[in-house]
Amino acid sequence: MKHEDYVRTVYQILKQHVGSEVRSFGLYSDPCIETSILEEWLDIVKMKGVKEVDLDFSSTFNFPHNLLDGETSITTVKLTRCVLSFPDNFNGLRSLTSLTLEGVHVNSRLIDSVTRNCLFLENLALIQCRGGDFSLCIEAHGQKKFKKLTVANSSNLWKIEILVPTLSAFHYRGSGRDISTAFFGSFLRLEDVVLDFINSKDFPDLPTCRLDLGRVTVLTISSTFLEGNGRKSIFIPILKEVQFLMEETSYCNPYDIASFLTNCSHIERIFIDLNGFSFNCGHYWEFHNKVLLENLQFTLSHLKSVKVKGFKLQIAELSLVKFFLEKSPVLETMVLVTPKNQNRKVNVKDIDMCRQKFFSWQLSPRAKVDVFLHSRDRSSLHPTHSKL
């Protein structure tokens, strides 16, 4: 569609909207859009009390801050692929509760302006943000409602400092370079955490970044996390749900998962996404960890459900399934889903042969084990967290 046709179409849609209110406004445009036209469109939806604004541009588009200035009804903003900056006297977005910046050029001054000005902010997400090196510092004196921080693949972020006692959710995906120098106030009461580290070379030590998981109830971790901290005593006594994201480049074996769970005495739901991963079953597993797993004296006394995606019926995977079935007296549901990759197809006959083993292993008389081909997964069992 030509630029002129695009502009004309958007105008027609806005003018033909006969309702008195507009709940959300989403725009996917190019850098050729004139600022005056964009301002006019935003004015139209502002007059109708728009709450949610989602604007997706090109990385070369300089987003004018005055379009978000002044008193508005906007509570949710997502800006994608643009350059954004606020002046020192910026006073817009005071009613904002959620801000997502994706592929946006950001710096410390911008982050400071947002956290200082948006006093009702509850959720902040920085996804694939770039530009010069910047730090993320949020302090308690201005923020009373801040609950959730998401940082994903923002390679230029070099420091995280969170001193907000209201923060309850922290979702992170990245190399770990930035979080290795992170500081989280000791008064934090985190309940919902994602730690998806993708580079074991930069993996941070949890005590170094002072991240307390003691009150977490929902957790997602990568296999890199297990490599870096799995053999340390990280107690998460009230954890209810855990999801393991297994990376193809990691060297975990089933015992790494089992030993981590020994410190999660109230776990109820376990999700494992193998994601093309195969357990490392070399000599260390065969002559050391395999024996430890078989002799592990531990009961998953609260575990009710397990789901494994990418299940290939490999021997190590079956060892883990056996562990769950033998150690879970109240288990109700186990769902095993074969890989999406057609090159890793599982023979249906092999599945049928394994069903007898599953039955002989299970401790819980109510446990039901379902095996689905990836394309036929009908289970309603899903993790709280989606991938960042």
From TrEMBL:
Limits of the FBD domain: 297-372
Name the chain's protein: FBD domain-containing protein
A Pfam family (short name) is LRR_At1g61320_AtMIF1
Query: InterPro entries from the xrefs?
Result: At1g61320/At1g61330-like (IPR053772), FBD (IPR006566), LRR_At1g61320_AtMIF1 (IPR055357), LRR_dom_sf (IPR032675)
Show the SUPFAM superfamilies listed in the entry.
RNI-like (SSF52047)
Task: Tell me the domain of life.
Answer: Eukaryota
